[in-house]
Amino acid sequence: MKIQLGLKENWQQFSLLVLVNMLVGGMVGLERTVVPLVGTEEFKIGSDIVIFSFIIAFGIVKAFTNLVSGVLADLYTRKRVLVAGWLVGLPVPFLLAWGPSWNWIVGANVLLGISQGLAWSMTVNMKIDLVGPQRRGLAMGLNEAAGYGAVGLTALLTGYLASIYGLRPQPFYIGIVYTLTGLLLSIWVIKDTRAYTMLESLKGPGNGNAVPSKKPGLLSVFKEVSIGNKDLFAISQAGLINNLNDGMSWGVFPILFMSAGVGLEGVGWIKAVYPMVWGVGQIVTGPLADKIGRKPLIVWGMIVQAIGHLVIGIGQLPALISGLSGSVLLGIGTAMVYPALLAAVGDSSAPEWRASALGVYRFWRDIGYAVGALMAGVVAAWLGIIWAVHFAGLMTLGSGVLVWVMMKESRAVRN
């Protein structure tokens, strides 16, 4: 059977991958509302750093798994790595629902980090493989819209279930459905896409700033993406700061708004709005990155996120309104940057080493979860929990300025 690059030519497999990534994202949504409150309410943990330890564990493990995921994909095919991700994630909802101590929750997040690093990385790579260079923004917009839309919907659903049945175990039952469904789809209906990468490589560059080359080793790619190429450096630091915001909000928002008198269902809405707007918005911002370029969306997206932090941090509005308004702005800003950053990495790396480049970028991006949670814990213990929001806002603004100064536009020029 002849293979062709393009979304139209591969819409069936692309749609199945969108569905799989919704299930991958839903596994993260399981934790957004309920798990920080399990630490404070059920296990009576008083230290912010200890509470945020599950996010730190998740972020570090996911980051390092991202780093090796591209190498594993080239060794064992994308499909096998995707299936492995689901297998690792199978115990997670059971540990979250019935783990007898906080260490079990942290252990579940180690497994979740590995699972996400493998499974989400492969859905990103497989979609980029299918669509070719001219529709990367659209592909990443649809991919991340599916994943983070599911994060938001699941966060809302778990908050609702927790308000009716309690924090555990009922909110985590849906995770059992997610893992089993995702595993079966990945085994039986998803097809490997590495042949599409080979086809694109044969067709020539057409990849923005990318230069075709023989495939370098992971260490060389790590150096190139991290410090060797100033465009990729700017992209990587923006990804880190973007997920720093997410890691901070993951741990801080439930505790901050519960202490301000917002009920559990209201906290569920605040936690849901951010990833839902982030997810749905990428349906627009993904193709927009193909039309107007990557850089404008990245720069202005970071600025919009900084404004969202300001709305939450100034405390001039009722807590629920400021939480919802700030979360909407955070979601809009993140929707602007997320597909543009991924597409820019694809533009600036040749097909021969793109999977490894994406893995390195996603390493730095997802280290942001751990950095954000650790920053939030330290700042909250030192200055108070609201200052974690202020610090994140200042870092986000600085990151956007750095992209504006350093990064060249990377969008491929169409014939």
From TrEMBL:
Q: Where is the Major facilitator superfamily (MFS) profile domain?
A: 231-415
The record's Gene3D superfamilies line, in alphabetical order, gives: MFS general substrate transporter like domains
Q: Which residues cross the membrane?
A: 12-30, 50-69, 81-98, 104-124, 145-166, 172-190, 297-321, 327-346, 367-385
Membrane topology field: Multi-pass membrane protein
Highest taxon listed in the record's lineage: Bacteria
* Annotated compartments: Cell membrane
Keywords linked to the UniProt accession: Cell membrane, Membrane, Transmembrane, Transmembrane helix, Transport
Q: What is this protein called?
A: MFS family permease
Identify the species of origin.
Answer: Dyadobacter fermentans
UniProt lineage? Bacteria, Pseudomonadati, Bacteroidota, Cytophagia, Cytophagales
